[in-house]
């Protein structure tokens, strides 16, 4: 997605790091660049607004459930792997090597 106009911060960079912006997980200097980009680029601003609305909806609908500590640790571990660029296994390696059950026929 791009408005076709040149920007100091490219649209692809903004969209690749949109959740870091939404979650306030980026340095202030980068946040300032993104805010400037949103002022200049209506397609990215629209995408930002949509993702912000989805995030608020999920928080409202699912934000009251207690998350088991082990599940939180597994999710955070996977996020750390992804951020470090390491391969993420497709199956849960923390479950003692268990393989998923085969689907049962009806």
Automatic annotation (TrEMBL):
Region named Disordered: 86-106
Domain Putative zinc-finger: 11-44
Protein name listed in UniProt: Mycothiol system anti-sigma-R factor
Organism: Streptomyces actuosus
Higher taxonomy: Bacteria, Bacillati, Actinomycetota, Actinomycetes, Kitasatosporales
């Amino acid at each position: 997605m791009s408005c076709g106009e040149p920007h100091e911060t490219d649209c692809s960079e903004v969209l690749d790091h949109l959740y870091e912006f939404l979650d306030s997980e980026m340095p202030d200097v980068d946040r300032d660049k993104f805010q400037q980009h949103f002022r200049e680029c209506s397609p990215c601003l629209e995408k930002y607004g949509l993702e912000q609305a989805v995030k608020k909806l999920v928080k409202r609908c699912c934000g009251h459930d207690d998350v088991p500590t082990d599940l939180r640790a597994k999710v955070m571990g996977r996020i750390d792997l992804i951020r470090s660029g390491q391969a993420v296994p497709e199956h849960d390696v923390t479950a003692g090597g268990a393989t998923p059950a085969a689907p049962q026929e009806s």
